[in-house]
Structures are given as structure tokens and as C-alpha cells.
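#struct-pred

JT: dropping the chains for the assembly here, can someone run the whole complex?
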Amino acid sequence: MMRTFRGGLLIGLAVAVAVAAVAVTYDFYDTRTLKRTVRRGEVLCGVNKGLPGFSIPDDKGNWTGFDVDFCRAVASAIFDDPTKAKFIPLDANERFKELQNRKVDILSRNSTWSLSRETDYDLYFPAVAFYDGQGFMLPRSRNIDSALDLNGSKICVQDGTTTVLNLADYFRANNMKYEEKKFGKLEDVVKAYESGQCDTLTADVSQLYALRLNFARPGEHTILPDVISKEPLAPVVRERDDDWMLIVKWTLYAMINAEELGVTSKNIDEALKSKKPDVMRLVGTEGNYGEELGLTKDWAVRIIRHVGNYGEVYDRNVGSESKLKIPRGLNQLWNAGGIQYAPPIR
Amino acid sequence: MFSASVSLAQQPDEADQPGLIADDTYQLDPEWQKQMVYYRTTEPPGTIIISTAERHLYLVQPGGRAIRYGIGVGRDGFQWQGLLNIARKAEWPDWVPPPEMIQRQPYLPRFMAGGPGNPLGARAMYLGTTVYRIHGTNRPDTIGTKVSSGCFRLVNSDVMDLYDRVPVGTKVVVRQRPEL
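RK: done, full complex below.
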């Protein structure tokens, strides 16, 4: 009798220990990023080590940029506090591995979305934050405003990049001739262009604007509107973590929808009093869309108040109010000349 | 919608400095320089689309592009939106400051003949029957700002370029940030 009781006690104890162990292990290995982020109290953002306009630290370690602000927007949606984002600079070759290994919660680091990048690393690109692509810069005095007028040009390009291949494809497809001036280092490409060794320089459009900043007279160089390749830059999250993926995706869409509806960080309090259904759904005075995401009713208000709408973030970091002054182009809203288009909040 | 502040809208702003000869060597920031840009729209080529929030005027071109000009727009409270046509065009337009403006600034000329010192600049395109117009300026440094009483100003070289590209009857769409 006694033995049975003691045996029962032991078994009970063993079960309890086992359950506790499983619970602790489960908690430790819980793959749900939102839960881990909330427990930690901050979002871990993988960013570029230093790319003006996108993510760059100053000498005091304060980060600024388009990608940085996007991560602050995610932190704002969750914590109502944009400072609850910690920035972890990552190299291009380590970025996807680091995300996969849970060193960061989100990659907000000018990464081009492609099929192999999603399948190779079990990652997911929720939505396009910035449509980049290869373009051409040339002296304004040449009075050319279409890439189709570049037949016979000498073109400066960085060797060993997809840029060289895109260039070849584009000229072949349009039955045009050109002369390549290839250099291993980007700075040599720029030097050659500046010294007049080539008629035009080709690189990704965002890069062309950054390069132009350093010219003695930036206004004397123009960047053509033509974009000859697709470089959709997007945040990245891990696969099989749908709740987190939805938060990242809809943070971006909230910012784009806010711009379309005219809601800004400056008029957000006014927007809370709006009687327009689209605005009411965005700011949470109608519906419970925030709760459905695992956030609060005012999730989008937090984003817009602390970080701003898409246009504000664009202008401040890479657009008209920044040094780069990249025209909105493809990144303008779908109803204002571009292709930025967010599904509606409803 | 277009009748508000009729008298105000005709006033070149105090910042216009009648009599000042435009500095033709002034170099605009790249952002405000005339430039061919990507622009996707269902409006036909030849249409003018003005974005007051951006301070840009787009002249739609074939093939998903537009010529973009930097403009100065109306001050807050002097912005408007709508669809109009260019009703009339004029080279080196005269300027007749309205009585209200003379009252406030008695030192202004009662009439100023068109010319390089005229705040309306080298060309004017009149929008429908409204008091608004697209015109030049003798103050190129005001491009990219919110200074006017509802008119759209371009630097003289740009307004001359635009003038030669658009006939009377051209459709003009003025867009503003949506209201809450």
C-alpha cells in the first residue's frame, strides 16, 4: 500500500517536472516573434551598416533612414514607442542567415525580393517598401530624356554585378550599341564618369542619387526616368510566423493608406475626429482591425504619430526634404503617378 | 470652389517685388528643375497635372512619363483643387493690382506693363474663368515654396517652355492632399 502511494507520488513528481521542463523549453524555443518581442520589450532590426538615406548611424550612434524608420514604425505599432527598436548592423552576406538564426526579428535592409531568397532561407518578404531599379545618370547638357536615345554611348558600369548583365540585355533588346567602361570599384566608375571618359553612368537609381550628392555641381547631372530592371526592396521576416508577418506587412500598408487618405503625423489628432469611413477604419474609431492583428485599436495612429505616413518617411529620408532628393517615381502612390498600392483596411 | 478670395488671388505676393529683374543665372535645386520623370496615369498626353502638396507640375507625355516642373503654390488656405482648361494665353502679361491690394500697399503701381520686372513673369496661362493662372516669376527663389494666393508660378525659362507645348483648351487637373 505504502509502496503504491510512494510510487504514485514519484510518478506525479516526474510528470510535474517533465511538464515544467517542457513549458520552459517551449517558452525558450517559442517561435512566435511577436510574443518574444513583447517579452523582450524591443524589436531587433537588422539594418545596413551605412547607406545614406536608408540606414546610417551618426557619431553618437543615432540611426536614421528609410529602413530605420520602417522598423521604428513596427516598434511604434507594438509598443507605442519608436525608441523600442534596436538596430543591428548586418553585412549583405550574413543578413539572411542572421534573420534565420533569430538574431533579429526583422530585416529592414534594402534587400531585393526574389523567389530564391524566399525559398533558400525559408524567409518571407511581406510587401515592397521601395521600388528601386537600374537607371542612367548623364550630364544635363546632353539634353537626353530617354534611355532609348543612348545608342552608341560609352557607359561606365561596375564590373561583376547584375548591373552589367541588365545593361547588356536592355541594349540588345532595343537593338542599340554601346561601349562598356568597366571598373571593379564603384569609386573608379564615378571618377571615370566625372572625368568625361563615358557619356553615362549606370547603377541602381537610389545609388545614382547618392553618388550625385558628392559631385561639385549636382544640378548639372540628370537621372533618366527609365528603370531597366526590377529591384523591389522589402523588409524580410521568417516563414511560418504568420502573425508577425502580418504585423510587418500591415505596418507598411497602414503608412501607405495613411498617405492616400491624407493622414499625417501633423494632423493625426484631427484624423481621430474624422467621419470618413476609410479614415475611421485606419485610426481605429471604427472596427477592431488592430485587435485582429494582435495589436491595439490605435495601432496605425501610433505608427503615424511617431513615424509618419509613407510619403513623410520617404520625403524625410530619401525624397524632397532629404539630401538625396529622389523623385517619388515608381514609389509615388498608384493614383498620383506611381505604383505604390496598399490593400484597403476593412 | 474657385470663387473664394477672388481679390486676394490676383495679388502677386509681397515677396514678388515688382520691378525686380529676374536673375536668369539662378540655378534651381535639382528637385525643382525641369525634368522628364516616370509618371503613370490614365490622363492622355498633353494633360497638365498639378500636385500642390509636391510643388510639381506634370505635363503628361506618351509612354508613362511626364515633364516635371518645379512650381511655387498657394499659401495654406489659398490652395484649391479641381479640373479646368487653359482659357487664354498671354506673353509678358500686364499686371493690374486690385484695389484691395492698393489699399493695403499704397506704394504699389496701379498698372505695371509686362516685362522682366513684372511679378507675373514671361508668360501666363489663364485657368477657365477663375482668377487663377499658371505664370512666370521674377523671383526664381520662390519655386518649391507655398507663397502665392492660389496661382502656380514657374521660373521664366520653364513657363516659356510649357507655354510653347500647351494650346488653349489644355486640360489642367489640380490635386491637393485629400481632406480628412
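JT: nice. Residues 2-29 of chain A form the longest helix (28 residues). DSSP finds 14 helices and 13 strands in chain A.
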